[in-house]
Specification:
It is built from five helices and seven strands, in the order αβββαβαβαββα. By secondary structure, the protein is an alpha/beta fold. The protein has two domains: 1-29, no CATH class; 35-168, Glutaredoxin, CATH 3.40.30.10. The strands form two sheets. It has a five-stranded mixed β-sheet, with helices on one face. It has a two-stranded antiparallel ribbon with strand order 1-2. The chain is globular and about 45 Å long. Residues 8-34 have low confidence and may be disordered.
Length: 179
């Protein structure tokens, strides 16, 4: 009789845990596992001589891209970022490239592709906090919180990224032809 009571209590415990945790995935999630991960604090001088901090990523939409000079596909990413900047013109958000190496290492590649964007040398904690596990990685931020992430270049989600960026800037999803 006692074992029946133990089974009943154990079963009740399991069901109450499932119900209180929403049915799956576990109850406790670290903030880093949740959508909308917050961009970590930083304050660095970029390759353009301007000092940037998390504040520049805190007001509306922004784009953070994580690259390295020896990445074969990062050239595609650099071109895509410059296209975004050129396409949006005055409406372009802050676009910052982060690398864990000396930004001068990217300069030759950027110059050859005619890319003019700030590059910041970030310590490994920025990469770790954002769980950057592939290069290139591009993150769309809204008020310093992650909205969308794409990895690799060229990327099949490029159109989705640009559409979401335009939406967050309050622009039409697709550019309007002026012709």
């Amino acid at each position: 009789m006692r074992w029946k009571y133990s089974i009943f209590v154990f079963t009740l415990l399991i069901y109450s845990t499932i119900i209180s945790c929403g049915g799956g995935g576990g109850c406790a999630k670290k903030p880093d596992d949740l959508p909308g991960r917050r961009f970590p604090d930083f304050k660095k001088t970029a390759s353009d001589g301007v000092e940037y901090s998390a504040k520049e990523l805190s007001d509306g939409a922004a784009v953070a891209s994580f690259l390295v000079s020896w990445c074969l596909t990062c050239g595609h990413e650099l071109v895509a970022l410059q296209e975004i900047k050129d396409e949006l013109g005055d409406d372009a958000p802050q676009i910052i490239i982060f690398t864990f190496e000396d930004p001068a290492n990217l300069r030759e590649l950027m110059d050859s592709l005619e890319v003019d964007l700030p590059v910041i040398r970030a310590d490994s904690s920025v990469f770790a906090n954002l769980q950057i596990d592939a290069i290139p990685t591009r993150i769309l931020l809204e008020n310093r919180h992650e909205v969308l992430r794409i990895t690799g270049a060229p990327n099949f989600e490029e159109a989705k990224f640009r559409s979401m960026l335009r939406k967050n800037l309050g622009l039409p999803a697709e550019p309007v032809d002026s012709a």
